[in-house]
Amino acid sequence: MLGLNRGNHLTPNSPDKRSILVKSLTVGTFLIVSGLLIGLAPERIFDWLDCPALFACRTANNHAVLIGPDWSLSAARNVTALGSVLVLSTVAITITGLLMVSRLFASAAIYAAVSITSLAAMSYAKLFFSRNRPVEIPALDQVSGFSFPSGHAMMSATMYLTLLFLLEEYLTRPQKIYVGFALTFLVLAIGVSRIILGVHYPSDVIAGWLCGFGSAICWRGVIRSNRKSSAISGGGG
Predict the structure, then answer these.
(1) The overall pTM is greater than 0.85
(2) Considering its fold, how many domains does the chain have in total?
(3) By residue range, what is the domain housing residue 218?
(4) Would you give the end-to-end CA distance of the chain in angstroms?
């Protein structure tokens, strides 16, 4: 299998393998905690950012109308759909199935775990913080549940970037850079679309990004650690 010939000199208890996991977990946990701390900040501390950003997306005369061309609303809704539970579940099932038929069972198990745990963590965080959605402007998309953190921002960051980390050993350096920039841009666009549609405060989205990027980095450590183990044993996955 591509890339598995690298690192065959390592032992199961290799410091290199441990350091990869520890570094990833340290950085990832720091980002996750930073995101969650936003939710624990004193009430209204982010008013200087949240409300002006929401109003900046609407016309001055009618806050139910987006600024920009007529197609702005449909574009925002199309972008936001790429971070929905339906789309991300479809991606998870498709990628997990593809990895399984490719006999990459460990990678398939990891991506399935990413999908399940990211949905569970997002749902629990929303219940824990119980922040209401914006009421300052009309919402331009159908939503339910609480606002913090943004599930679209959090789950899209976790799942799209973890997908990149799973596939990176099969990509050349220019391909990794291109796909990395493309997926990061997609994740940022999904988060911004939630603000444009008026269904999340910017602080919700920023927290979602931090938690999502942090989770993806943690999973990258697991993926690379598994890759080292596969190289040692000579197995796939």
Answers:
(1) yes
(2) 1
(3) 51-233
(4) 9
